[in-house]
């Protein structure tokens, strides 16, 4: 297939606009967003916006074009399929929809490693969305090395366009469609800005393995010798909080690649959750929400335009989007050396998992494929127990290939690097949610520090009979009873019942990966029943 003419498409769409704001910087975009309506300056200077009906991603409205490149490679159980002809009709219809509108164009980069870099152009009629993606991708004046061989990507964003399922082959009036062969993305019918960011990650996840790069939904920071530490975890597990450490420069907040050279950030910004944000618990993130140019999504303001981070009346998924360079400690060039430590974060609301466990390489791949956390009982009537959540590779919605492809790459990277993997539970101890208590952040930080600094290399470990991993018997500065969840329960038999339930959930979830995945590295149901 001949190379697609991205420059021609970009010029065609821009040329049909009534006006074009080309690579405007924050002050111009803030002014334009306020002028368009629906955006407000907070008392501290950030830009506050609401995303309307969609306050999160729409995974069921995401489609990949099924063609010769993708047909036999994409994990279709996880992605909707769209015919090439339907994608072309959708793109043409959106082009006509945007014609005559004022457009904002941002030419940005994804990938801090010039050997694995994307030349990304976003075209949108919304000024605040242009500011959002400018904050989150790499700006060309950020000091990142720019490749003249970067892969071109064009994202056409039309938040007010309503798709026609019969005409466009989608499910509803909302559609996120990715053409992997031509690196084109169309986003329509939703104002939730995270769709723009995650579409870049989805493209990267598809192409990176071909370049022998493991794409990862994780945060990363640097140790004293320049070695990287990786933090995988679903929402609410502490990934952003724990990777933001003034003593460990941050490589990136959310999306990375692990190549033969080391780790590189895909982005140039952070998209941090702000629910219950405080200056005491997360000072760096809190400070970033008070700067001019930061975009606050769905954060309720008081009468004086001061953010009320504890107010979740719009959504619990409140966010702040800001450039990474506003943080006090960041890694030069947004790159790091070969990882020494890999941390899988979970917030176990069942009260079963220990606060820290050492994983063998096989166990690391098992927990990577499982991608487990547990959400607390919600407001839905009749829901009184924790809800297990499994998201393969800690980012299933963004993984176009089968999870075992990424799992095999992780196994190879762990073998080559000798990196040690840990499971860090930031959830409940002494009982499930509602009975037990959340593991205190001071103990979590102490355990993490011990794992990162090598303090646990020679300590005594106990074998966990349910999950098969090793748990430290003692860690300086941490109550020893905390390290054994069963001891923390008032009723040991009740712990056993809960543990058996969680083991069964793990095993049931892992069945979908088939015989090629190593289920023997996971928990043993028969042991839990003894």
From TrEMBL:
**Any idea of its EC number?**
4.1.1.49
Q: Which UniProt keywords apply?
A: ATP-binding, Cytoplasm, Decarboxylase, Gluconeogenesis, Lyase, Manganese, Metal-binding, Nucleotide-binding
Pathway(s) served = Carbohydrate biosynthesis; gluconeogenesis
Cell compartment(s), UniProt: Cytoplasm
GO terms (molecular function) for this protein are: ATP binding; metal ion binding; phosphoenolpyruvate carboxykinase (ATP) activity
Query: Which positions does UniProt annotate for substrate binding?
Result: 57, 192, 198, 319
Q: Which residues bind ATP?
A: 198, 217, 233-241, 282, 319, 438-439, 444
Provide the top EC class.
lyase
What are its cofactors? Mn(2+)
| Catalytic activities | oxaloacetate + ATP = phosphoenolpyruvate + ADP + CO2
Summarizing the function annotation, the protein's role is: Involved in the gluconeogenesis. Catalyzes the conversion of oxaloacetate (OAA) to phosphoenolpyruvate (PEP) through direct phosphoryl transfer between the nucleoside triphosphate and OAA.
- Record's protein name: Phosphoenolpyruvate carboxykinase (ATP)
| Organism from which the protein derives | Devosia ureilytica
């Amino acid at each position: 297939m001949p190379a697609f003419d991205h420059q021609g498409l970009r010029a065609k769409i821009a040329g049909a606009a009534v006006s074009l704001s080309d690579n405007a910087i924050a002050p111009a975009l803030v002014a334009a967003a306020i002028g368009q309506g629906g955006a407000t300056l907070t008392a501290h200077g950030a830009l506050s916006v609401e995303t309307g009906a969609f306050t999160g991603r729409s995974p069921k409205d995401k489609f990949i074009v099924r063609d010769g490149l993708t047909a036999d490679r994409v994990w279709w159980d996880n992605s909707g399929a769209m015919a090439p002809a339907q994608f072309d009709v959708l793109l043409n219809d959106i082009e006509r929809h945007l014609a005559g509108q004022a457009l904002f164009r941002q030419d940005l980069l994804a990938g801090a490693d010039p050997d694995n870099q994307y030349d990304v152009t976003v075209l949108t009629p919304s000024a605040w969305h242009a500011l959002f993606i400018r904050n989150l991708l790499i700006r060309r004046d950020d000091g990142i090395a720019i490749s003249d061989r970067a892969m071109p990507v064009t994202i056409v964003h039309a938040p007010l366009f309503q798709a026609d399922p019969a005409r466009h082959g989608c499910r509803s009036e909302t559609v996120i469609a990715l053409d992997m062969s031509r690196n084109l993305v169309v986003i329509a019918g939703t104002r939730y800005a995270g769709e723009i960011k995650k579409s870049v990650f989805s493209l990267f996840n598809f192409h990176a393995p071909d370049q022998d790069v493991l794409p990862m939904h994780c945060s990363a920071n640097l140790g004293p010798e320049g070695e990287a530490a990786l933090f995988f975890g679903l929402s609410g597990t502490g990934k952003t909080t724990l990777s933001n450490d003034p003593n460990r420069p941050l490589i990136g907040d959310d999306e990375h690649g692990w190549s033969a050279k080391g780790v590189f950030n895909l982005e140039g910004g952070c998209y941090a959750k702000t629910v219950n944000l405080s200056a005491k618990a997360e000072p760096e993130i809190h400070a970033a929400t008070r700067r001019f140019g930061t975009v606050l999504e769905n954060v309720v303001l008081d009468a004086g335009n001061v953010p009320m981070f504890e107010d979740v009346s719009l959504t619990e998924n409140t966010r702040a989007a800001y450039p990474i360079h506003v943080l006090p400690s960041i890694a030069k060039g947004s790159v790091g050396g070969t990882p020494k430590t890999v941390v899988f974060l979970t917030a176990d609301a069942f009260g079963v998992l220990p606060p820290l466990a050492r994983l063998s390489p096989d166990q690391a791949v098992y927990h990577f494929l499982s991608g487990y956390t547990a959400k607390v009982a919600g407001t839905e009537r009749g829901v009184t127990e924790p809800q297990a959540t499994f998201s393969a590779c800690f980012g299933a919605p963004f993984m176009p290939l089968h999870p075992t492809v990424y799992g095999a790459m992780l196994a190879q990277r762990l073998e080559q690097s000798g990196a040690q993997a840990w499971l860090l539970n930031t959830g409940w101890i002494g009982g499930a949610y509602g009975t037990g208590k959340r593991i205190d952040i001071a103990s979590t930080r102490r355990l993490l520090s011990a794992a990162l600094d090598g303090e646990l290399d020679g300590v005594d470990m106990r074998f966990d009979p349910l999950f098969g991993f090793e748990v430290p018997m003692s860690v300086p500065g941490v109550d020893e009873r905390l390290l054994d969840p069963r001891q923390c329960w008032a009723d040991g038999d009740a712990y056993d019942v809960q543990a058996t339930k969680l083991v069964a959930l793990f095993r049931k979830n892992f069945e979908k990966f088939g015989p090629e995945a190593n289920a023997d590295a996971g928990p043993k149901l028969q042991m839990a029943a003894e």
